[in-house]
Amino acid sequence: GSNWEFIKTDVTGEKKNVGRDHTESSQGTECPLQRPHEGISTALQQFSKDKSIAAIVLTGSEKAFAAGADIKEMVGNTYSQCIQGNFLNDWVEVARTQKPIIAAVNGYALGGGCELAMMCDIIYAGDKAKFGQPEIALGTIPGAGGTQRLTRVVGKSKAMEMCLTGNMISAQEAEKLGLASKVVPADQLLAEAIKLAEKIGTHSSLIVQLCKESVNTAYETTLQEGLKFERRTFHATFSTADRKEGMTAFAEKRPANFTNE
Ligand code: CAA
C-alpha cells in the first residue's frame, strides 16, 4: 500500500508526543512518553510488524526537529553511569529499522537531533532548518554518530569544521553537502515528506527493504564487499513474485500490482 507513519519529536526530545499520527485523516493516537527514545523505538517496532505501513516520517516542531540530548539532565552524569547504562545506545533502533524512514527537519537539528536525522534514510529540510554538532561547546563530543555518519556524508573537512567549532549550517548548505536531499518551504515540508513516503509506498515493500539494506551496506563495508552484497541481493530479487510482476507489468504497459512476496 501507500501508507506512511508519522512520528513526532520535539525541541529537547523530552516528554513529547511520539506515536502514530495519521494527520491527513486527523485520526492519530498520541502517546505522551517520558523517554523519547523509548517512544520512538516502541513505535518503530510496532510499525515494522504492521504490513500496512510502507514508510515512516519522523518530524519535530516548526522550531526544532530536536535540539539534542537533554543537557540539564546530563549535567550530573558520571563516566561509570554512562558505561553501565550504555548511554545513547537506545537510539540504535532508528538506524536499524527495516522500513524506509524519512526525517522531515524544520528548525534546529542539533547534537543528538542532527544525529537522529542522520540515522534516518532520507533527510528533507525546511528552508529555515539548521544542522549542527555543538557538543564541543559543552565540553563533550557527539556520541550518536556525529563524528561518524556526518564525516561519511559531508567529508572530513566539513565534518571536522562542524564538530570542532560547533557552528551550525543552513538547510541550503546541508542540501549542497548532500546531508539533506531537498529543501522546501517550511510550511510544505511535512506534505513533501509524506509525498515522498507515498511514492516509496507505491513500490514493493519487500524490494524496498532489500534496496535500503543494499544502500546501507555502502556505509558499512568496503566497495568490493558492498558490490558483492548488491549483486547477490539483485540476484535474489529474481526469486520474488514482485520482480516478475514488475517486469511483466512493464512489458504489458500496465501498472504493477505488487504483493510484497
Ligand atoms: N537540553 C536541555 N534544554 C534545552 C536544550 C537541550 N539540548 N536545548 C534547548 N533547551 C532549553 C533551553 O534551556 C530553554 O529552556 P528554558 O526555557 O527553561 O530557559 C528552552 O529549551 C528554549 O531554548 P532557548 O531559550 O535557548 O531558545 P533559543 O531559540 O534561543 O535557542 C537553541 C534554541 C539554538 C536550540 C539553543 O537552545 C541551544 O543551543 N540548545 C542547545 C543545543 C545543544 O547543545 N545540543 C547538543 C546537546 S548534547 C548531545 O546531543 C549529545 C549527543 O551527541 C547525543
TrEMBL record:
<dbReference type="InterPro" id="IPR001753">
    <property type="entry name" value="Enoyl-CoA_hydra/iso"/>
</dbReference>
<dbReference type="GO" id="GO:0006573">
    <property type="term" value="P:valine metabolic process"/>
</dbReference>
<dbReference type="InterPro" id="IPR029045">
    <property type="entry name" value="ClpP/crotonase-like_dom_sf"/>
</dbReference>
<keyword id="KW-0276">Fatty acid metabolism</keyword>
<dbReference type="GO" id="GO:0005739">
    <property type="term" value="C:mitochondrion"/>
</dbReference>
<dbReference type="Pfam" id="PF00378">
    <property type="entry name" value="ECH_1"/>
</dbReference>
<comment type="similarity">
    <text>Belongs to the enoyl-CoA hydratase/isomerase family.</text>
</comment>
<feature type="region of interest" description="Disordered">
    <location>
        <begin position="13"/>
        <end position="35"/>
    </location>
</feature>
<protein>
    <recommendedName>
        <fullName>Probable enoyl-CoA hydratase, mitochondrial</fullName>
        <ecNumber>4.2.1.17</ecNumber>
    </recommendedName>
</protein>
<feature type="compositionally biased region" description="Basic and acidic residues">
    <location>
        <begin position="13"/>
        <end position="24"/>
    </location>
</feature>
<dbReference type="InterPro" id="IPR014748">
    <property type="entry name" value="Enoyl-CoA_hydra_C"/>
</dbReference>
<keyword id="KW-0456">Lyase</keyword>
<dbReference type="InterPro" id="IPR018376">
    <property type="entry name" value="Enoyl-CoA_hyd/isom_CS"/>
</dbReference>
<dbReference type="GO" id="GO:0004300">
    <property type="term" value="F:enoyl-CoA hydratase activity"/>
</dbReference>
<keyword id="KW-0443">Lipid metabolism</keyword>
<dbReference type="GO" id="GO:0006635">
    <property type="term" value="P:fatty acid beta-oxidation"/>
</dbReference>
